[in-house]
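Follow-up to my earlier ticket, as requested here are the two runs.
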Amino acid sequence: MSAVVIVGAQWGDEGKGKIVDVLTERADVVARYQGGHNAGHTVVINNEKFVLHLIPSGILHGDKLCVIGNGVVIEPSSLIDEITELKKRGIKIDKNLLISKSAHLIMPYHMALENENEKTKGTKKIGTTGRGIGPTYVDKMARTGIRVVDLYCPGVFREKLDANLAEVKRILGNRCDTTGFNADGIFETYMGYAEKLSAHVADTDIIVNDMAGKNKRILFEGAQGTLLDVDHGTYPFVTSSSAVAGGACTGLGIGPTKISGVLGVVKAYTTRVGSGPFPTEITDDTGEKLREKGGEYGATTGRPRRCGWLDFVGLRHAVRVNGLTGIAITKLDILDGLEKIKICVAYKAGNQLLHDLPKELPLLQEAEPVYEETKGWTESTIGIKEFGRLPLNAQKYIKRLEDALGVKVDIISTGQRRDELILLKEQF
């Protein structure tokens, strides 16, 4: 049995889409376990760019089964649009995509709730994408959520919809216009979605476990990253789901004994979107150069990402809470040409020297990075496919990461394209 979890080890946007795409070649199943259409996984194949928001990256391989698990929240119109666009571009969907009956649905009122909540926070706003992800998870935990399976029980769907709309109108009151939240209109629209998605809806937990029992090779694909995890991230500036490796179990209905490895995806520097503490953030010209060279703009929102140096404090935390068995480094080529590269080895907060990520928000907000400076490299790493051909200082940079984290680097991405890669260890 081979079942590998692919998890972001930073604040998301690490390049998981490409790593999943590459590993999918040897996989039988790719299963997404959390998040929503706020995620944006970019894959470049033969110079053609694909941006996937809900559908697992494995869909770009015609013979792979792709699963959207129960831990994902789904905005039906966005999913249908994504399916339609992929079909237009010649990607097989009909028999390759399954959606969990137990996944929760994003409703129109969830977006209004999220936007209004952000407005009230002022300078303390989270910096959400405004796509209704958080309120959908809130309803899930409050046991008032609407699931995919409810689409096929119209009476249940309508009963839940009426109750939820009454509560939403009570909460929002005069804060925004709720006249568009018409129960009849929403009901009719979502019944239309039900018809379009029906061929893909299944008991995915049963199917994934059956596949594992048959020794099929499975990739579990997460969205966002460890430091955005609702339990283990920089709370409250986090997402609303379990982005760490453990989320694969709850988000797909599979036991931890079925998982054979956890691959953490690490960008060669660090980025963050939205609000929240970011000790290694670079606010000078170097940060701007990294942003432009790395194309650090959200694949979903287009928002510019904050850029900073590699942070061993956050990465040690990611190794621990995910149980990483290997690391995939991405965007190494973006560091090409830098004379000096800094690495954060600890934080300083007041009189304290911190080697572990603090849970106390005030400590994290005031933390200053303790840097180790290393020599950069002038040679290009783009397209290199053998570790020994990397510039010597790039090799040293990678070895320093391995030594600090106690985890081997299995994969090094040296460019955007699928074939621009150094594969040091097979995952299956």
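Run two:
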Amino acid sequence: MTHSEIRPPERLHGLDALRGGALLLGVVLHASLSFFPQQIWIVADDSRSIGAAWLFFAIHLFRMTAFFLIAGLFAHMMLSRKGWWGFARDRAVRITGPLLAFWFPVMAGIVTALVWNAHANGMIVPGAPPPPPPTYDWTNVPLTHLWFLYVLSLFCIATLILRAPFAALDRNGGWGRVVDRITGALIGWWTPVLMAAPLALALWLDPKWIAFFAVPTPDAGLVPHTAALVGFGSAFGLGFLLDRRRELLDRIAAWSPIFLLVAVASGVAAYELAGGPKLAPMVEPTTTKAIAAAVCALAVYSSAFAALGLSLRFLSGHSPVRRYLADASYWVYILHLPLVMLAQVWVQDWPAPWWIKLAGVSLGVFAVCLGSYELLVRHGFMGKWLNGRRIPWRRRAEPEAVPAE
């Protein structure tokens, strides 16, 4: 029996929990932006703190890398189960479809928040002509926070393109055994170091790299940043290979304390080398930039593998609450950004500490998103569309008939 034929019977609840948590943390991540010490977001709250920048940095460092790592594993799982046509159809419906369907409503909500914020801060004078609208083309089209659907679609297309030649080469299983041995050699305490090397080079060569944002977010333009493709693509690829060697997940879980220690140390160092929440890019490929890129890349992967290993160790049991939140996380993430921005505009002048307003914005958005998920999505056709299954409404148990005396 080959490695790719070995499948544990139970569901990987730890990976479900981490994937859902990565998406749900996006709400807190975006909510924190208005509380930075200096304005880097369209909404600038009256109460600001460096604590918000630290919170953003800690979440942003590992969140999407861990997400793409799990996405790659699940991609191989689905490809093995459904074949190339079933895989292509499922990904087109559940990934590319929501991107196309929700992009315009999301943009409309964001524009509404921007206009409200401009009115609230006196940037729009009544009777004055409006500023000219921005012009967009394929180089700067705003993908908003839905960029991950676009990039994931590209990775799935690449998977299908690469599948044919590898399948032709692996008719007798020889190439597969070589790939499995290489995957096994990649997994150990050294994994973040090996994974960090190509990302560090890509960051060092990127003249627009802003160190505080770690892996650049490819949220504008149809051609993603090279560093983003390297960082997220490497994670997706390794996750894809890990599904062939599912037993290696136990090795990652065993090394998770080491990954966590490295993540904390390198994460703090990366923040300091970036100079905090600065928007100035490191343009020239200097020695200082090389050190910052190497430390940042190590922090990205060590934190992602720490999150993966800890989730496998402590969240692998079945939990109805975690399963519900994992199912809801896709809808929450699609819906959340305009709501976060509207809430930020609403509370920006309130006389309250930043952390109270951050908690209020986050919890309020969670409440609206989860409520709409339960009422509009989970039990209808959208639940099947987004999650691959529709959960029927529970029927009340009928009272037992009392026999007549």
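The only thing I checked on run two: DSSP finds twelve helices and no strands in the chain. Let me know what else you need.
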